[in-house]
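Working notes for the structural subgroup meeting. M.R. asked for a predicted model of this chain before we commit to crystallization trials. I am recording the input and output together here so anyone reviewing the notebook later can reproduce the run.

Input as submitted:
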Amino acid sequence: MIHLILGNTGSGKTTYSNQLRSETKGIIFSIDQWNKTLFLPDKKATDGLEWFLECIDRSEKIIMQLVEQLQESGTDAILDLGLSKFEHREKFRKFAWERSFEIKLHFLDVPKATRLERVLQRNREKGSSFEFEVSRKDFEFMESWFEKPTEEELQNAIVIRE
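Returned structure, recorded in token form:
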């Protein structure tokens, strides 16, 4: 099973992914962790959104190869990849469909005020789910960037509302 974890910034995707891992014994792929380790140390002040999206795309090519191996061995893959855009989610649905892999969408539908409070707290505490600081400007950008899943996408999905 491939689990697509979807929610806007601060919705609790990483925390939820860890809970799901303990239930399924699956393997988590967290794009924040990949980016922090592989790319952010080399980020220049002039690197913008296009640079960041290219880094994500390169990471996902490797992640997809690993997910294929996990599926062949009967191990769940938990994809905490942001998945903010319909097109991005569709890329993984197509990947699963072409290989006859089972897929499940998990949507964390959390109000903006709650998410902002969580992000600010995570920035202060730098606890287990902290990978890098998310500024208010970045948070607001993600508000406009995020595409809420369609009703069709949510058919057979697990929806968590807080």
